Amino acid sequence: MALIVQKYGGTSVGTPERILNCARRILETQQAGHQVIAVVSAMSGVTNNLIDLANQVSKDPTEREMDVLLATGEQTTIALTAMAINDLGGQAVSLTGAQAGISTDRVHTKARIVNITPDAVRRMLDAGKIVILAGFQGETASHEITTLGRGGSDLTAIAMAGAIKADLCQIFTDVNGVYTCDPRVVPAAQKIEEISYDEMLEMASSGSKVMQSRSVEFAKKFGVVFEVRNSMNDQPGTLVKEETPGMESVVVRGVSLERNQAKVTIDDVPDRPGVSSVIFGAIAGANIVIDVIVQNVATDGTTDISFTLSAAELPKAEKVLSEVLPQLGDKVTMRSESGIAKLSVVGIGMRSHSGVAARMFGALAKQGINIQMISTSEIKVAVTVAEAQIEQAARAVHTEFGLDAV
Amino acid sequence: MALIVQKYGGTSVGTPERILNCARRILETQQAGHQVIAVVSAMSGVTNNLIDLANQVSKDPTEREMDVLLATGEQTTIALTAMAINDLGGQAVSLTGAQAGISTDRVHTKARIVNITPDAVRRMLDAGKIVILAGFQGETASHEITTLGRGGSDLTAIAMAGAIKADLCQIFTDVNGVYTCDPRVVPAAQKIEEISYDEMLEMASSGSKVMQSRSVEFAKKFGVVFEVRNSMNDQPGTLVKEETPGMESVVVRGVSLERNQAKVTIDDVPDRPGVSSVIFGAIAGANIVIDVIVQNVATDGTTDISFTLSAAELPKAEKVLSEVLPQLGDKVTMRSESGIAKLSVVGIGMRSHSGVAARMFGALAKQGINIQMISTSEIKVAVTVAEAQIEQAARAVHTEFGLDAV
Predict the structure, then answer these.
(1) Could you say which of B61, B75, B81 has the minimum Cβ distance to residue A72?
(2) pTM over 0.90
(3) C-beta of residue A230 within 8 angstroms of C-beta of residue A21
(4) What is the Cα–Cα distance from B41 to B77, expressed in whole angstroms?
(5) What is the CATH number of the domain that holds A167?
(6) Would A230 be classed as within a structural domain?
């Protein structure tokens, strides 16, 4: 008998019929001899409807109250899912985040889990019940309702799996698992059977949005093995776990792409201490997330600094920079460019295999694709290219590293 | 400075605009120098939608889960109402039943309040906040969500007002108060300024459905003065309170009518002990609520027993009785009649004024209306008449006791 945590996202529980499908799967898992905790999200569309309602009564809804409001979405799903299981002959009980002992800090709408006391969950499991747990929510020490922000239900599942020492955590979603690349771009992409936490993190931060990084980081920190799989079929998915020696034999695990990027270049920046801090301090102060930063060595006492960011954030970045750049001297100029995209190859095998970057650049050169910026980490090589060429680039690199399905 | 509990029903908070209206009224009450707790119901329609959802995933939804599901209705309203008040410049915080310390027994879908610990509410009021409290819900000692059943939000308001020793409890609804009779039947009906708990209880049990009896009983038990008033205007409503000596000067406070009644008569019942228990034990065993019971003295060793009940319950009653009556002997027969209605006059003044029943019967006789059954309590006289004549009867009796508006 294993203890299994399952998580079903908003699409998987989006209609009463889909809830019944999930209920059947959950019950079958128990009937196969396991203890089951199922974490569910709000039915797809519900959260947006609630946000619409809030905007109809308030120009700037209080965050504490937003949490009280949004938490009803998951509370609705847990009740319906438990009812559905009971109707199928099972014995299920629902628990809100608060009832399940999920304690968070007080940062409403994006709270962090600080502790989980799974006593009530354990008691119900031991009584033979299936536990249906509301994702995305918890409560503060003073019993205020909080929500965990984007990707919160994944986090609930992984954190509960860690706290209760589950044998496996299954993240059910609407894709079959993690792919070597987005199959809509690279038709030859294959489902990855096993991937390390670090690779998954690099893939997530490189545009492969199967899961939010924070959930993967949490899983890595607490050693929670989890599987990403499809709620609409019975195929095994992708297992995400601590790296094993065997994993290194694959040089590149996957290729990620991220579109809608923009690049800002600041020219003729004086090469003296404190300059970067003026620039990136202003950017951070405006809550703009930037990605790749490149700075060349100085010539003639000045240098150029470039960085990429989401194209949607470009106007805000330009405004902020135009206010601070005069501090750096008269000659400093700024130019920007949108219509670029980022391509990354990720794999822990890079640590022991040299020449990955060179092979990637060569594959792109063969296609006549110009590389604009380069950034690397221990297990990743990322380049920016013109957005119009990103799909061609992805296919070429995917083939180069032997990832195409046979 | 007074401490005021207000309650807004589902119609009063039925749309975002109406929530904003309530928010304005709540904030104005605080700005007039008072501390305010506002109890809100689910937006009208929401509870039925949730029940529909439940029925789509389950033939017989688990009652525990039904409570988890339905409680989201009020939780949505408290968040929206608090946001709306904050948007208007006030400081409001929402509380679920559990957060507000409302403890109930474990009878899901119709729980009873066993205790209220208003510490959190008190703390927020003392910090200058307006408290928006979810009606209709509480939690058990083991932190399970419960709902209070029909009229639950009124009960929440009255119970909280009692527990926190509020100066006044205002029940906002879609009528101006309690009337001497239903104005759709008796156009001359007037709003009653003050009414005693006992009169209100008799009115409620006689068909005047402004509030459920259980809330009035609770108010009486704990001496909570409350006012029934309209959320759509600023007119004073009806004050419900312990009787005062002055109240007795009015002989009849109001006239109630209840339609869709049926009558069952059992003839030639042997006049011996245990007979009633067979009949009414069977009726109670089938969960049928009966109203007036009349039994005449026996002649020739047999008697007739009649009782009234809701016409909708008549087929069930006939079935149950046909099974048990043979136990009482061969001669016993049953007949039934629907299409009857009940008319009641209620007033604590009856205790000190004689002849109320005679005046009522006289007024009905003058109209040629036949009285079928009579039942009386210390402060009520009720008769059943043909349903076709109930409106004429109500108007005649309303005039007889001087209740018509001048």
Answers:
(1) B75
(2) no
(3) no
(4) 7
(5) 3.40.1160.10
(6) no
- The two three-digit tokens of residue A375, written as one number: 């950034």
With beta carbons under 8 A apart, name residues in chain B contacting A71: 75
Among candidate residues B315, B267, B313, the one with its CA nearest the CA of residue B290:
B313
Q: What is the ipTM of this complex?
A: 0.84
- Flag if A65 and B87 touch (Cβ within 8 Å): no
Q: What is the Cα–Cα distance from B379 to B389, expressed in whole angstroms?
A: 24
Name the stretches of chain A with pLDDT < 70: 207
* CB neighbour list of residue B287: distance below 8 Å, 6 or more residues apart: none
Number of domains in chain B: 2
User: How many residues are there in chain B?
Assistant: 406
Q: End-to-end distance of chain B based on CA atoms, in angstroms?
A: 37
Write the residue in A50, A83, A96 that is nearest to B57 by C-beta: A83
Yes or no, beta carbons of B69 and A83 under 8 Å apart: yes
What is the Cα–Cα distance from B212 to B202, expressed in whole angstroms?
Answer: 11
User: Has residue A179 been placed in a domain?
Assistant: no
| Tens of pLDDT, residues A16-36 | 999 999 999 999 999 999 999
- pLDDT over 80 at B302, yes or no: yes
Does residue A14 lie within any of the structural domains?
A: yes
CB count within 10 Å of CB B199 equals: 26
- Shortest alpha-carbon distance between residue B123 and chain A (Å): 12
User: How far apart are the CA of A83 and the nearest CA of chain B, in angstroms?
Assistant: 5
For residue A115, give both structure tokens: 């502790």
Same domain, A26 and A128: yes
What average pLDDT is seen over chain A?
93
> Degrees (nearest 5) of the Cα angle A231, A158, A403?
60
A170 shares its domain with A276: no
Overall average pLDDT of the B211-230 stretch: 93
Q: Give chain A positions within 8 Å (CB) of B59.
A: 87
Q: Is residue B99 part of a domain?
A: yes
B154 and B9 in one domain?
yes
Q: CB A65 to CB B54 under 8 A?
A: no
- Taking each helix axis from N to C end, the angle separating A46-57 and B16-31, rounded to the nearest 10 degrees, works out to 50
pLDDT score, position A289: 86
Query: A51: exposed, middle or buried (C-beta count within 10 Å: 0-12, 13-18, 19+)?
Result: middle
The residue among A149, A174, A199 that closes a domain is: A174
What is the amino acid identity at position B350? Answer: M
Interface test with B, best of A80, A109, A139, A147 (most B CBs within 10 A): A80
What range defines the domain where residue B379 resides?
A: 255-400
Q: What is the pLDDT of residues B347-382, one digit of tens each?
A: 999 988 888 999 999 999 999 999 999 988 889 999
Q: Same structural domain for residues B27 and B170?
A: yes
- How far is the C-alpha of A268 from the C-alpha of A272, rounded, in Å? 12
The pLDDT tens digits of the residues spanning A214-232 come to 999 999 999 999 999 998 8
Same domain, yes or no: A16 and A164: yes
- The residue that leads in pLDDT, B297 or B248, is B248
The last residue of a domain, from among A122, A149, A174: A174
